[in-house]
Design brief:
By secondary structure, the chain is of the alpha/beta class. It contains 14 helices and 16 strands. Strands 4-12-11-10-7-5-6 form a seven-stranded mixed beta sheet, sandwiched between helices. Strand 13 and strand 14 form a beta hairpin. Helix 3 runs antiparallel to helix 11 and helix 5 crosses helix 10. The radius of gyration is 22 Å and the shape is globular.
Length: 428
């Protein structure tokens, strides 16, 4: 297809994420991708600082993951999961149970990260229905959180930074606590837990679960909070008979320097959601894991089964590449790589703090965030980044990078350098 015609058709007929059909943001046609590089149709190459929304942890076009897909494709691309099982699903479930918190014993495969959140919420509600406590039909979460774009997930996203404020009169009403204020690694103060504690004390009889992103709040604000918040929250949930759900979709599989962010706090949830990097960015896929207590309580109550079953649940191609991605991660020196990325980010981003318009700079694992004093002009700054040979996609007032773990030191420096130059020149 002629590239001009391609872009024209795209502009007139294809709706991209969080964009307008009337005034669409510019898009950049990618012809192929390999390693940490995106190659455009015009021949330019971009260093990808986003890992395709945090999923492509091993880089693009990885031979191990390619082989996993090809090998499974020769056997079967898909088979319904109702009444049927297969080796890739069993092996993947076994691996997930091995590497996730020990409290998690059962795996429910989903189509995506957002759907894994839907399943987690549904599990929590059905758990209490099975116990004869149908009044426990509310959720508690924290502000500045983001859990996906489907309706259940939207209802526990921050109504402002979670980007779903216009649906406030349609979505189920849940309880929002003030987001944790004490940063990761700072001195803990007990006052930080008081707001959510008050909500729990007041509403625990009607609350089924607390859901939040452990340690790292992703698309709702890219904030890193103190481990003791989770430790105190776990005690409160246990004391007041509330399930604890961790959304590890953005943080899972090494992004924070631990395999899962909850490991940083040594806190185990009752239910956990994973997605994004689960398949190394190859396919849309997710999973919701839960404790034996949650699984058996649901199974022993009315109607005796968990009421969910996606068409493409347990897809063999997705299971195969997910298993290959996890094994590839575990066999690699991933922790050293993530620590190296963290070290470079801290060094290279230090002087960004002094630039006009910068409110904060924060780094954790392979995550580097610059918070500026106004919402970014995405079209303008992205055009600048492409000219500089990098792919960085800001949102709200945040310019951040979460690159593939295979990225080289020199490439991280180029990414940070582009951010520094954009802010210095006021191109945001």
């Amino acid at each position: 297809m002629d590239i001009k015609k391609l872009l024209e058709f795209d502009r007139n007929h294809i709706w991209h994420p969080y964009t307008s059909m009337k005034n669409p943001l510019p898009v950049y046609p990618v012809k192929e991708a390999k390693g940490v590089r995106l190659k455009l149709y015009d021949g330019r190459e971009l260093i990808d600082g986003m890992a395709s929304w945090w999923a492509v942890i091993h880089g693009y076009n990885h031979p191990v993951l390619n082989d996993a897909i090809k090998s499974q494709l020769n056997k079967m691309a898909h088979v319904m999961f109702g009444g049927i099982t297969h080796e890739p699903a069993v092996k993947l479930a076994k691996k997930l149970i091995e590497i996730t918190p020990s409290s998690l014993d059962a795996v429910f495969f989903t189509d995506s990260g957002s759907v894994s959140v839907e399943v987690a919420l549904k599990m929590a509600f059905q758990y209490w229905i099975s116990k004869g406590r149908e009044e426990k039909s509310k959720l508690i979460t924290i502000r500045r959180g983001y859990h996906g774009d489907t309706f259940g997930a939207m209802s526990v996203c921050d109504p402002v930074t979670g980007m779903h404020e216009i649906f406030r009169n349609i979505l189920p009403k849940h309880y929002f606590a003030k987001e944790p204020q004490i940063p990761y690694g700072a001195k803990w103060e007990d006052e930080d837990i008081f707001d959510i504690k008050k909500l729990i004390e007041k509403h625990h009889k009607e609350v089924a679960a607390v859901i939040l992103e452990p340690i790292v709040q992703g698309a709702g604000g890219m904030r890193f909070y103190h481990v003791e918040y989770l430790q105190n929250l776990k005690k409160l949930c246990k004391e007041y008979d509330i399930l604890l759900i961790f959304d590890e979709i953005a943080t899972g599989f090494g992004r924070t320097g631990e395999l899962f962010a909850s490991f940083l706090a040594s806190v185990e949830p009752d239910i956990m959601c994973v997605g994004k990097a689960l398949t190394g960015g190859y396919m849309s896929f997710g999973a919701t894991l839960c404790s034996r207590d949650v699984a058996m309580t649901i199974s022993e109550g009315r109607p005796g089964v968990f009421m969910h079953g996606p068409t493409f649940m347990g897809n063999p191609l997705a299971c195969s590449v997910a298993l290959a991605s996890i094994e590839l991660l575990l066999k690699s020196n991933w922790q050293k790589k993530v620590k190296q990325i963290e070290k470079i980010l801290r060094q290279e981003m230090e002087d960004i703090k002094e630039l006009d318009g910068v409110k904060d700079v924060r780094v954790l694992g392979a995550i580097g965030v610059v918070e500026v004093d106004k919402n970014v002009d995405v079209a303008r700054i992205q055009r600048f980044f492409v000219e500089k040979g990098v792919w960085i996609r800001p949102f709200l007032n945040l310019i951040y990078i979460m690159p593939p773990y295979i990225i080289e030191e020199s490439e991280v420096k180029i990414l940070v350098g582009a951010i520094k130059e954009a802010i210095s020149k006021g191109i945001y």
